[in-house]
């Protein structure tokens, strides 16, 4: 098995240790391997650029990330059908996007949020 080096900030390391303990992983490596398997399952391998889809995209983020959400929404008006915004607790927002259009554009939008350190959680459901 290959060994890799991984850098995490203090918050991510504390969360990893919490998950490791709560879910009963034998160590950090086992927890990271499980996370990588989940990421692999979430990422489609190859997308036909012309394929159309309907999808729901859910985000959880701090109020400071509203700028990146608004900017991305305006860049992807071709696929954003509806957006629902809710401040569900102090300092945290939930966004639901109903998307309809080219799957390649939907995945591009999801990837922008997934790569952002300002977004806490991203989940895409393609229908």
Describe this structure in words.
This protein is an alpha+beta fold. The protein folds into two domains: 10-42, no CATH class; 52-126, Alpha-Beta Plaits, CATH 3.30.70.1150. It is 41% helix and 31% strand. The chain has helices spanning 10-23, 28-42, 66-75, 103-115; strands at 52-62, 80-89, 92-102, 119-126. The protein has a four-stranded antiparallel sheet with strand order 2-3-1-4, covered by helices on one side. Strand 2 (80-89) and strand 3 (92-102) form a beta hairpin. The longest helix has 15 residues, at 28-42. The chain starts with 9 loop residues before the first helix and ends with a strand. The model has no long low-confidence stretch (mean pLDDT 92).
Task: Please name the defining characteristics of this protein.
31% strand; alpha+beta; 127 residues; four-stranded antiparallel β-sheet; globular; Alpha-Beta Plaits
What topology does this entry show?
Elements: H1 10-23, H2 28-42, E1 52-62, H3 66-75, E2 80-89, E3 92-102, H4 103-115, E4 119-126
Antiparallel strand pairs: 1-3, 1-4, 2-3
Helix pairs in contact: 1-2
Question: Could you describe the largest sheet, including whether it forms a barrel?
Answer: 4 strands, antiparallel
Number of strands: 4
CATH C-level name of the largest domain: Alpha Beta
String of helices and strands: HHEHEEHE
Domains (count):
2
Mean pLDDT: 92
- Give the count of helical stretches: 4
Beta-strand percentage range: 25-35%
Shape: globular
How far the N terminus sits from the C terminus, by CA atoms, comes to 36 Å
Helix content: 40-55%
CATH architecture of the largest domain: 2-Layer Sandwich
CATH topology of the largest domain: Alpha-Beta Plaits
CATH superfamily of the largest domain: ACT-like. Chain A, domain 2
